[in-house]
Amino acid sequence: MKIILYIVSILAIGGAAYFSYEHSVKFRQQQELRLDAIAQNKVVTAEAESTEQDLADEKKAIAVAVGERNDATASIENLQSNELSLKRQLTEIDATLEEQNKELADLDKTIELLKTELISIGGDVTLENLAEKIKELEDSKKNLDRELETKETLVADAEKRLSGNKAEANRQTEKKMERNKRMGDNAMESVITRVNQDWGFVVIGAGSKNGFTPQTILLVKRDGRLIGKIRPTAIEPTQTIADVIADSMAPGVRLQPGDRVILAKTETR
């Protein structure tokens, strides 16, 4: 009985040892499988992380490419806009050049006409010295204007003196008229009472009452000799202002107060 118990015990211990060994082997196998799985998991994780990094880098690269594409698109649109602007500017420049060419053509025609006119004018006037000649003419005009102003001042002074002496001239004229009446109406004779040598006019002591008119030509005599002719310019009833007809004067002779005046038609009877 004890032997059987020993045998059973030995078998039990041997079975336990066998199962323990077998379990140990399986445990090691499982441990190795788990470690392999862990190692593979780490590899897969590393690969996944690398893939994610690559994906992130790819996304960044794509974003950069998209940005560059957008910049390129904007640059192209800007260049196209600039191209349109340049085309418009070129069109405007072409139009301006065409207009300027027309103006130059018109200017050339004007220059040719001006040259023709200068030739017809004669002298030494050319396009090159035209500005100088124009300045000379302007200077001459200024001198003439000053001279005219001076003469106008002299005329004003003369008119003032004439106006101031009008009463005296009228008295003298009345005296002369009385004497002329004694000489007869047909004679129509009067005398010069005042002479302005600078302006070439005289004052006569007779007027419209004596038959003087603007169309009348008067003869001037001295000592019974004809010395010149005068033409009335302002006629009053008893006084006349007349211009001297320069080409009718005898050489070296100048009119003076006291010279006799008669109607030309009376002289020719």
Structure description:
This protein is 66% helix and 14% strand. The chain has 269 residues and is of the alpha+beta class. Strands 1-2-5-4-3-6 form a 6-stranded antiparallel β-barrel. It is rod-shaped, with a radius of gyration of 67 Å. The termini are far apart. Mean pLDDT is 78; it is low at 182-186.
SSE pattern, N- to C-terminal: HHHEEEEEEH
Mean residue pLDDT: 78
Q: Into which percentage range does the β-strand content fall?
A: 5-15%
Oligomeric status: single chain
How many H/I helical runs? Answer: 4
**In angstroms, what is the radius of gyration?**
67 Å
Strand order of the largest sheet: 1-2-5-4-3-6
What is the share of helical residues? 55-70%
Q: Please give the alpha-carbon distance between the first and last residues.
A: 216 Å
Structural class based on helices, strands and sheet pairing:
alpha+beta
Name the poorly predicted regions.
Answer: 182-186
Biggest beta sheet summary:
6 strands, antiparallel, barrel
| Basic shape | rod-shaped
Q: Using DSSP, what is the number of strands?
A: 6
Number of domains: 3
